[in-house]
Write a structure and sequence with these properties.
The protein has one domain: Porin (Beta Barrel). The protein contains 1 helix and 10 strands. Strands 1-2-3-6-7-8-9-10 form an 8-stranded antiparallel β-barrel. A two-stranded antiparallel sheet has the order 4-5.
Length: about 240
């Protein structure tokens, strides 16, 4: 919670700074992005990397800061547990679940503050072939849903093992809060069209239950790293 308060405080500072930047160029913008979403820490035991898509509305309050409303969607398919083996205690042989399915989807809506260090004294950007670096801090709402189905029940005791005897579906879903921090580079193709490259770390206040038969521990909190490329089009206010 301290981390979340720190992020919200940083966003608040960016909002307050807009009054001091009122005399500078103010612009609205829209954008879209695509990238790679990479599980971190315990989530790596469950899924590999996948794609991530997003859309943004941007308000450039001046050269030094931009507020961004972002929506993104990402889905992990073919979780690692689909092919994960287990040793049956009765005959000591190794089996897998032939019909297993494991997926996890994310939807999020976040407010990000993009802070451009040093831009108050040396204006850059909004001109063709110029670029500028930024620090990103943000927070918002996530909806995630993880569903695992058709896992063979390993605690059977009657031989031979029945691979059609499966556990009940395990579904973890929640609406929750999340924070993100990262760095980026915005380069301008024209005065109002830019390419945005960023990487960031995301912390989602949520959990996935353990699957002890398969030696998978509880996941809490849910952490991901993403890197992506986007385009933005700006319009004069």
């Amino acid at each position: 919670m301290r981390f979340l308060k720190g992020v919200l405080f940083a966003i608040g500072l960016a909002v307050l700074a807009s009054d001091a930047l009122a005399a500078e160029k103010e612009m609205w913008g829209i954008g879209g992005s695509a990238g790679l979403n990479v599980p971190a820490r315990q989530l790596r035991d469950r899924f590999g990397s996948t794609t991530k898509y997003g859309a943004t509305i941007n308000y450039a309050m001046g050269q030094a800061s931009t507020l961004e409303i972002e929506y993104h969607y990402s889905k992990f398919d073919k979780g690692k547990i689909e092919t994960m083996p287990f040793t049956w205690s009765v005959d000591k042989k190794v089996y897998t679940s032939p019909n297993a399915s494991s997926t996890m989807a994310f939807n999020s809506l976040a407010l990000n503050a993009l802070i451009f260090p040093g831009e108050t004294n040396q204006a850059r950007g909004f001109k063709a072939r110029e670029y500028r670096y930024y620090i990103l801090v943000g927070g918002g709402f996530y909806r995630y849903k993880s569903a695992t189905r058709n896992l063979v029940y390993p605690a059977q005791t009657k031989e031979p093992i029945n691979l059609s005897y499966v556990m009940d579906p395990q579904v973890d879903q929640r609406y929750t809060l999340a924070t993100d921090v990262g760095f980026g580079l915005e380069g301008f193709i024209t005065d109002n069209l830019s390419v945005d490259v960023r990487g960031r770390y995301n912390v989602v206040i949520g959990e996935l239950r353990p699957m002890l038969f398969y030696n998978i521990n509880q996941t809490w909190p849910i952490m991901l790293f993403d890197v992506g490329v986007g385009f933005k089009i700006y319009f004069l206010k």
